[in-house]
Amino acid sequence: MERNTFTTVIGWIAAGLLVSKSVIADSAAADASNLDIELTRLIKAQNISSIYSDKGQSTEKVALGRALFFDKVLSGSGDIACATCHHPNLHSGDDLSLSIGVGGDGLGYERKLGKARPLIPRNAPEIFNRGASQWRTMFWDGRVEIAADGHRISPADEKLPADKLENIVAMQAMFPVTSRHEMRGRKGDLDVSGQPNTLAAIGDTDFEEIWERVMGRVLAIPEYVALFKQAYPELATDELHYAHAANALAAFQTKSFTFEDSPWDRYLRGEQAALPEAAKQGAILFYGSAGCSSCHSGALMTDQKFYNLLVPQIGPGHRDSSGFDIGRARVTDQKKDAFAFRTPPLRNVAITGPWMHNGSYMSLEAVIEHHAKPLEMLQAYDASQLDPSVKKTFRLNTSTILVMSQTFSPEINVVPELNSQETEQLIAFLESLTSPSTQDLSYLVPQTVPSGLPVDR
Length: 457
Ligand code: HEC
Ligand code: HEC
Prior knowledge:
This protein has 16 helices and 5 strands. By secondary structure, it is mainly alpha-helical. The protein has 2 domains: 206 residues, Cytochrome c-like domain (Cytochrome Bc1 Complex, Chain D, domain 2, Orthogonal Bundle); 127 residues, Cytochrome Bc1 Complex, Chain D, domain 2 (Orthogonal Bundle). The protein has a 3-stranded antiparallel sheet. α2 packs across α8 and α10 packs across α16. The longest helix has 44 residues. One heme C (HEC) binds next to α12 and α16.
């Protein structure tokens, strides 16, 4: 009897151990599935879907667009291409806080500013997934836009050949070639072979003349005539407009920089195991109590609206606003829009720093902290994190803070103070937006381009 009791007790203990073990296992599984239940509820409530971009582009247009994207012949002095600032090896950006345009040399961190040349006022955005149909705006200030009624808005107003442009990415591609600092150059510049830069000689608002001359240069190269013929067999060479080049640039960008395989997109398509637990917790914060999705909403993770988050003033700004970059107000001419910038999309954001419209932050942690306490972060901003040429342009004094604060967007107050664990979880979520396919995009870089200008620098 005694012995029996003993074995019974042992049995009870063993059974108890088993029970408690399985209770632990069950509750871990329950936690995981509770995360999924909670997250699924948030995804449904906010109508979040995975990214989808139509990659079905004409092969011939993509081939033409690829050549143009890497060819410095589009620039006034033959020294800069789209790829210089949106390089496949630099995650479709340039790794710099502020871009270096005409007259610069090199790529990425090593790119050097040309003598007596200004920095570009803004950070070169990544260009992933811009072919998605939800896009209505381009640029940090949304100066290129397709309005709700289909009306096309751009700095070229009625001069934009809107009927020839296939989509908003093509609309955007009309403008880098017209920008003096990005690609065109200054009056009096000489090109790489010592000849006068003929694009720079044209007046700033003479868009049609600029586009015509760019096309004139391109079509003086027989290989381009052949590429255009293949892409646009229905058009005679003299019917070609720079808009057709822009459509090809758009086809290349859409085809080549669209990736739908981030862990988050896989999760949204039903693969629950694609997302690590910390990222799920981060997603619950992002779509829940941290308030992020009130602006970074929908499939693109942006509402495409404009907010002034008191991001530190760095960069040369613009002459017509006393050296400030007043963002959206340059487009609308309304004081209320001063210092407001478009909510950026977030796919691949973990690999596309420096962050913000002017690359003022070097870590996602600082970016998140800035969202939680913008004024404090502005006042405490440490410019020593910037490259020396950028650091020189940092402006902070009482009057700057005052003028910026006047149009502060109170919508950002939804973001609460976040502790370090919550911040880590949000970062884990942001990291889950990185598509593994973006790791090596060097296959997009051609060996040569039709103009024969160098591609590797
Ligand atoms: C000198 C660097 C530079 C060059 C060269 C350049 N870009 Fe950009 N790109 C930028 C910067 C900076 C911005 C943001 C400017 C702004 O918002 O005011 C930008 C914005 C864009 C955007 C908008 C993305 C968005 O969602 O707002 C696209 C697309 C783009 N560039 C494609 C191109 C193409 C195509 C070319 C060549 C025809 C080109 N870029 C040439 C630096 C450059
Ligand atoms: C009120 C709207 C709003 C809310 C809420 C918001 N953001 Fe932002 N976010 C923006 C805007 C606008 C910018 C760009 C500001 C600028 O550069 O001037 C930005 C920039 C960012 C960037 C930098 C992206 C890049 O490419 O440079 C990240 C990352 C980011 N937000 C994440 C978050 C997270 C995480 C949350 C929640 C904790 C959040 N945001 C909440 C509007 C918002």
